[in-house]
User: What shape does this take?
Amino acid sequence: MNIIVVGMGEVGRHIAAVLVDEGHNIVVVDLDLDTLNSIEESLDVMSLHGHAGSEKTLKDARIETTDLFIAVTDNSEVNMLSAIRAKELGAKITIARVANPEYFDGEQAMIHNIMSIDLVINPEALVAMEMHKIIRSTNAIAIQDFADNRIEMIQLPVDYQSKAVVNHALKDLKLPENTLVSAIIRDNEIMVPGGMDVLEAGDEVMIVGKIEQIPKVEKLFDQSRRRFTKKVFMIGGTEIGRNLSTMLARDGIEVILFEKDRTRCIELSQTLPKSVVIINGDGTDIELLEEERADHADVIVAVSPEDEVNIMTGLLAKEIGAPRIVAVVHKPDYAKVCERLGFDATLSPRREVAKHVLKWVRMGEVIEVSPVLDGKGEFLEFLVSNEAKILGDPIFKIGFPKGANICAIVSGDRAYVPRGDDTIKVGDRVIVFTTPQLRKDVEKFFKKKRLFSL
Assistant: This one.
């Protein structure tokens, strides 16, 4: 593929390096000559000095032959303008990183097909969504999101208290709409079940469905999350903190947010749910944390814009005995330090953007693999190309491999668990559960005969 990457900050460098390793033809664009010289010394790319919103710069980069255009500078408007221009001048797919929350609705992390841009990504909202998943997964054995966080898989135990499910056949379970039992784990072995299979105490189940339906599934299995995560201390009134506080409050979780900028506190009080307690104070002040009884929090989350502050917050949280610590870090080396210090999770906005952008390079192939049970099973996510074998016929007619399960489809703004008479269209995201032994057979239904023309 011919790919242009605009912006050689951390996210642009990471994306370019991965794409070079995969053998793509890469042009990188930046306004800083020193940065470009450094990139040329370390990566086999063509570099171009110029403004990516300029028609001349785009033509110099041979935009008319470009399969994928990625704009990830620190300037949201430049990214959007350059992506729009790139599309007008012939780029097949365009992606823009946009950090300005004014372009998004609520906690929305991604927008598809807006102003001729194929994908717009909000890095802060992405991190908030990922943190939300981590915080509310306390009692799940495993949890995984797919298709831009619109589909979720959760692995739950079946115990004697789960009276609504234990000793019941799957066909008789009152599962919420758009959810599906994709696998049963029994005696450390995985099976793809049918409607007549009966759940037994001691089993574990993997359930896939629309993300907003998963809490209903947990209630059915008597595994409600909010009983386990009741209180969260949030350090930092950033956009990540605002988005995450809103999501947690919606789950019925008590949120205490610390922000030392009084003006920002006033702004947050006007947009956050009334149940969120906002404290105008320094989250790295151990006396303040002790006074507010931070040791009673189930999770302490550090989301300030400064890595050093987040690391210090985590250390103080450990000092006062907080059971779980989650932090934002921007520098890769700091993530390793946090791991050694015993933080439960660290996330980087730039890395989250890179992870989602790179999926688009693999259209027609597996764009994400999520192994389960030490690799005995796996969830595969596909982005359907216009040459995929799976197109056209209803699912029940395509001859999909036995032992593999089409768990969910995201088509445009719609996310759903398919039925046998549903059909799959170009550009759909399809989530499949299977085993490594069957992966090649599954991939044949999605493979393109060729990649984008070079």
Observations:
- The radius of gyration is 23 Å.
- Confidence is low (pLDDT under 50) at residues 449-454.
- DSSP finds 13 helices and 23 strands in the chain.
- Residues 132 and 324 are 13 Å apart (CA to CA).
